[in-house]
Amino acid sequence: MPQTFWRREVPFNSKRTPACTNLSRIVSAAVVFAGESRNPDEAAAMIREACRKLHETGVTPEQFSWAKKAVYGRTLAMLNNTESIANAMVSQYFAGYSLFDYIDRAAEVTLEQVNARLEEQLDDSRCALSVILPQE
């Protein structure tokens, strides 16, 4: 398999803040895995391997049940904070939904829908790695 993962190194400038984009209104979407690592290439390879395994096996019913409960629980916990409610309402509004539509959709999603989405979105041929390096 050819190496399709490309690397982009960006010097870190603490005086600028990266722009954030709400991708919910765009037809396509992005899945972002973020974090810190002393070896970003190795971390990226591990993520790609995990995605490859998901393509082969899909999400199991047990994993799905656990994840669905976790999403539902986080959503309910978010309702205890007015700032979180406001942020969620704005995000959902711009996506064309209400906050309660999101809760209903999270409760109604099926294992088959999740596995179909994984097939579409976790495509190794469209991966990128962005590394932010300290200024020298």
Keywords for this entry:
5 helices, 9% strand, 51% helix, 136 residues
**How many beta-strand elements?**
2
Unreliable residue runs: 1-27
Binned, the helix content reads 40-55%
Report strand %. Answer: 5-15%
Major pleated sheet? 2 strands, parallel
Distance between the termini: 36 Å
Overall, the morphology is globular
Structure description:
The protein has 136 residues and is mainly alpha-helical. The protein contains five helices and two strands, in the order E-H-H-H-H-H-E. It has helices at residues 40-57, 61-78, 82-94, 99-108, 111-121; strands spanning 6-11, 128-133. The protein has a two-stranded parallel ribbon with strand order 1-2. The protein is globular and about 45 Å long. Residues 1-27 have low confidence and may be disordered.
Write the layout of secondary structure elements.
Layout: E1 6-11, H1 40-57, H2 61-78, H3 82-94, H4 99-108, H5 111-121, E2 128-133
Parallel strand pairs: 1-2
